[in-house]
Design brief:
This is HEAT repeat domain-containing protein. It comes from Blastopirellula marina. InterPro entries: ARM-like, ARM-type_fold. The chain contains 20 helices and two strands. With 324 residues, the chain is an all-alpha fold. Strands 1-2 form a two-stranded antiparallel ribbon. Helix 6 runs parallel beside helix 8, helix 8 packs parallel to helix 10 and helix 12 packs parallel to helix 14. The longest helix is centred in the N-terminal third of the chain and has 14 residues. The chain is globular, with a radius of gyration of 23 Å. The two termini are 39 Å apart.
Length: 324
């Protein structure tokens, strides 16, 4: 035990398997939100979100405003405020004042490279918070600004918000962002995902162009977005690209994206690639098939294909992926 009873109670609650929805637990979490340590506040907010304690929403909001006062001292790294905002999004806070404040908030802190804006992720999460409770045009306008933010976490959040919006009105903005590009491949991939959710009919044809990009990461992120959406026709697109790309790491990633489709045709294709003449591709296919989970007799068929190669290396890959 330390001389900090709130921290001790929170750690005890964190270690306990008991419900966090009890009155005693709620009291502990409420007190933790007022703690001087932003890391204690951060963990309390995470636990409140995990337990879905809607009754503590007002206390989360109060903690957010408190941490904004003298933020470099009270909340270095913006850890507390960012986690609070994530919790409020998860708890579906309908009061937009906090999100509207956070989406423009910046917290510049000293860094060995100069300065870093530790509130970038917070801005992105606030965009997501606005999606279901504000007019569509406000979400679009706010995300248009964030997509040009200097910090990738903010741009990533904007793309995620547009994907959550899922409306055709977001498509032109996403097309423009994809054509102008982004230094971070993850942001590009999130924009692809958002476009595929916003414009299923035309989005698929539009994002295909990035599969031939000389930027390997951009190609992979595009393929990942396609694999996750599982739209009809995606398998033929990814199979064709896999056959044309020569980079080993890209080919491996493309097979994993094909595995995400979880369709009969994708499974049959991957099983055919388990061949002793190309052990590396065979190993990549075994890993991709594992993404399908325990579907029917797929594990047995995969194991039979591996055994047919008589490769000890491939058998080890199968055991690592499927049996461990």
């Amino acid at each position: 035990m330390t001389e900090d009873p709130i921290a001790d109670e929170l750690r005890s609650l964190d270690r306990s398997d008991a419900s966090r929805k009890t009155e005693v637990a709620a009291k502990t979490l409420k007190a933790a939100l007022t703690h001087s340590s932003n890391r204690i506040v951060q963990r309390a907010a995470e636990m409140i979100a995990d337990a879905e304690l809607v009754s503590l929403t007002a206390d989360l909001v109060k903690a957010y405003w408190r941490l904004k006062r003298n933020p470099l001292k009270k909340d270095p790294g913006c850890l507390g405020k960012t986690t609070i905002i994530k919790a409020l999004v998860q708890l579906e806070l309908a009061d937009m004042e906090v999100f509207r404040d956070g989406i423009t908030y910046r917290q510049l802190e000293p860094h060995w490279k100069g300065e870093i804006d530790t509130a970038a992720e917070l801005r992105g999460v606030c965009a997501i918070g606005l999606v279901h409770f504000t007019p569509e045009i406000e979400v679009l306008n706010r995300c248009a600004v964030l997509l040009c933010d200097a910090w990738p976490d903010a741009r990533l959040g904007a793309a995620q918000a547009l994907g959550a919006l899922g409306q055709i009105a977001a498509a032109p903005l996403l097309r423009l962002k994809l054509l102008t590009g982004d230094r971070q491949a993850e942001v590009h991939g999130e924009c692809c995902s958002a476009l595929l959710k916003s414009d299923r009919e035309e989005g698929l044809a539009f994002v295909q162009q990035f599969l031939t990009s000389p930027d390997a990461d951009q190609c992979v992120q595009t393929a990942l977005a396609l694999g996750e959406t599982r739209q009809p026709g995606t398998f033929d697109i990814l199979r064709s690209v896999w056959g044309r790309r020569s980079e080993l790491s890209v080919r491996e990633s493309l097979l994993l994206c094909i595995g995400l489709l979880r369709t009969t045709e994708s499974q049959e294709f991957l099983l055919l690639l388990i061949d002793k003449r190309d052990i590396r591709t065979a190993a990549d296919s075994v890993k991709a098939l594992r993404l399908n989970g325990p579907i029917g007799d797929l594990r047995e068929r995969t194991e039979a294909a591996v055994q047919a190669t008589e490769s000890d290396e491939l058998l080890r890959v199968f055991r690592d992926e499927w049996l461990n």
